[in-house]
Amino acid sequence: MVEDKPALIAETVQFDLASREGGEPYRIFLHCPRGEPPADGWPILYLLDGNAVIGTAVDVLRVQSGYPLGTGILPGVLVGVGYPTDNAYDSVRRSWDMGPPPGRVYPPHHPGGPDVRTGGADEFLAFIEDELKPEIARRVAVDAAQQAIFGHSFGGLFVLHALFHLPEAFSTWAAISPAIWWEGAGILTAAERFEAARMPVEGRVLVAAGEYEQRLAPFQEGVADAASRVASHVESRIVDNARAMADRLSAIPGLHAEFELYRGETHMSVLPAAVNSAVRFAFGPAALRTKETCVPSRLHSQSPR
User: Fold this and answer.
1) Which one of the listed residues 152, 171, 213, 265 is annotated catalytic?
2) Measured on CA atoms in the order 60, 62, 65, 69, is the torsion positive or negative?
3) Burial class of residue 298 in the structure, from the number of CB atoms within 10 Å of its CB (0-12 exposed, 13-18 middle, 19+ buried)
4) CATH of the domain at 18
5) pLDDT, average across residues 61-90
């Protein structure tokens, strides 16, 4: 019998990176394309909750960038920012990292567990900008002008926080199902300050949500917790808030913002479709238009048969 071997994520490595400020390390997943980079370096997409989404993102990019005349997708670098766990999420750490300040303290998720704290988004953003980005640039040639970030739920809230507080950090932002309502919708105050400051900004923003994030999916109707789900939808209004945020951002000079609704998807099932959209947003037709000089040598017309 042939011995089974672990199935690995193609062309992807992982390493742990601790912040200079101390604390537990982050698990970083790094996917690099084959071949020589463009003259300006590869475009890059950072994905929050890396443990949960890096495999999907790598497969989406590998398949589609291999046939760019059929997909419009060029190769690029993927960086998943996650935690040293075999689980999809570290819910306690992500609550702190992705929650905008000032934050609050909540009871433990499980008896005997740690309190859940929020409010560490500024520290997390500083880690990405000042420590993670230089480490990635040390390992692979990156185009500093073509950097994107993706986040879902709390991660989507963090993406908006990053846009409003450090707009020069990225050129493309994908905020999926952002928790705009969280802790009194404080992110809206940050949006107001950003608008009033009239900071120079140029880039593209995708704000998206699933159809069943504000009403019950058919399979949820009549289940035991249906009433609590409806109450949660009324409080969070994820679809309405996401659409309104996209409209608001589109009015800011220098920003191109759009809203996308994923039919048939719930708050969690939305992830694969959202990752596909983020890959297209970061490496797709807009990237082709802005990097025309490197297109001819990198396109080919073959398709799988």
Assistant:
1) 213
2) negative
3) middle
4) 3.40.50.1820
5) 95
In a domain, 22, yes or no: yes
Nearest CA to 294 out of 46, 58, 60, 76 is that of: 76
Cα separation of 161 and 248, whole Å?
Answer: 15
Question: Is 31 labeled as catalytic in the residue annotation?
Answer: no
With the CA atoms of 138, 135, 201 and 237 taken in that order, what torsion angle do they form, in degrees rounded to the nearest 10? Answer: 140
pTM: 0.93
Total domains in the chain come to 1
Among 95, 153, 171, 277, the active-site one is 153
pLDDT single digits (tens) 152-198 = 999 999 999 999 999 999 999 999 999 999 999 999 999 999 999 98
Residue 212's Cβ-side half-sphere holds a number of Cα atoms within 13 Å equal to 17
Which position has the token pair 């705009």?
Answer: 180
Give pLDDT tens digits for 73-83: 999 999 999 99
d(C-alpha 271, C-alpha 103), whole Å: 26
Does 213 participate in catalysis according to the annotation? Answer: yes
Residue 202 belongs to a domain: yes
Q: Which two tokens stand for residue 265?
A: 């998807």
pLDDT of residue 287: 56
